[in-house]
Write a structure and sequence with these properties.
Length: 264
Amino acid sequence: MRGVKGLFLNIMAIYNANKQQIANWYALKVFNNRLLQMQETIQKEAEDYGNSGNNENNSCNVETYIAMTEVDRALPQKPGKNTLVSYSGEQMAKNLTSKRDIIRIANKKQTVVTYKKPLVPSLLFIRCTESFLKTLKHNHLSEFSYYTRYADKELTETEITEEAENTNNNTKKTELQKVPAIIPDDQMQAFIWLTTEDHEISYLGEPKDIKLGDRVRVTEGPFKGFIGNIKRIKKDRKFVITIGTIAAFTIEGITHKMVEKIET
């Protein structure tokens, strides 16, 4: 019996330690419209974390991603005049929203700025280890939260020993806890492709707040193989993809003839 307990204890300890050091994609909800600032903070913390020796390889490879969208905006006019205010690039960035990526100014009759802004104002994706994510959260408690899921509770050594005894007696205690929600790599890579190429994609909200229709698969075109749902929006049938329980997006250009229903 002692040998079985010891083996079970060692296996669980190794599993829990290794799980903390595997890099996965996670999603953060950043507060107070500070996405770009938080992105910079994360890169700095990753360097410090790696140099501190917390990582066994003495490095911490962290990736971040913010989905951006292009927006056109006319510059404001001076009071009482028909001409528009003249701004330098730096002044325009400050006037619109600091650190947004201004692309061009065009139009002879009216000065229009085309710039980039986050597709979802509070959503930042990060690929890192769970241990780094928890360290980051500890250092910035009030600045963001991470999306979670329910999973079996990680047991302490004492609880693992008790679990082994219960398993031997054909009884098992089940307890759940909230843990960071992992986004599968293939799902994240597809989302990055969608939001970096020239595709029309719009944020719809969190899946829990949206009533989705049939589950479908795209059978042709550039989105062939994508799986999503159909939702009726203003009398139109839209193709909707979801990133776990985190966010839902509509993709333009997919008609009902390009999808097939997935039977459940």
